[in-house]
Design goal:
about 150 residues; seven-stranded antiparallel β-sheet; about 30% strand
């Protein structure tokens, strides 16, 4: 009887994990123009309209069930001011960080579970964006991380 319960528990766990993966969609675009051609940017889309035209190495991942989203892109330093003006600056302590996404490209120090670890001074700039979303800019590398969250 114990073996049947163990098998049922294992099956249920595998089914749950498999369903989460099915509800998660990851897309990549080499540059802004590719994302525009795919009609992936703007209101009602997964990529926000403020994505700079210099954006490259775009990675977007979203969960259809929860509407959580994770977005990464690189940008030219000349677009920094426009990117900053798209959202409101925050102190790192005021930021609501996302849960860890299903993927290894999101920095471990930008998740709810690990954000309390010490980060090098000035590594990130923190922003609150429209709705339940946030953005972090890594100026040293001209990279941005954008996410939406659930409470």
């Amino acid at each position: 009887m114990g073996e049947i319960r163990s098998l049922a528990l294992l099956f249920g766990t595998l089914l749950f994990l498999g369903c989460e993966r099915m509800d998660t969609v990851e897309t990549g675009y080499p540059d802004f123009e590719s994302a525009v051609k795919a009609e992936a940017i703007g209101d009602g889309k997964w990529i926000p309209a403020f994505l700079p035209t210099s954006a490259t190495s775009i990675r977007e991942l979203h969960n259809l069930d929860t509407n959580e989203e994770w977005l990464f892109f690189r940008f030219n330093a000349t677009d920094l001011a426009a990117l900053r003006s798209a959202c409101q600056p925050l102190a790192g302590d005021d930021t609501v960080f996302p849960r860890k996404p299903p993927g290894n490209w999101w920095p471990a120090d930008l998740t709810r579970d690990t954000v309390k670890r010490e980060q090098p001074e000035g590594k990130y700039e923190y922003y609150a964006c429209k709705g339940n979303s946030g953005m972090v800019i890594d100026r040293r590398r001209n990279e941005a991380y954008y996410w939406t969250w659930i409470r």
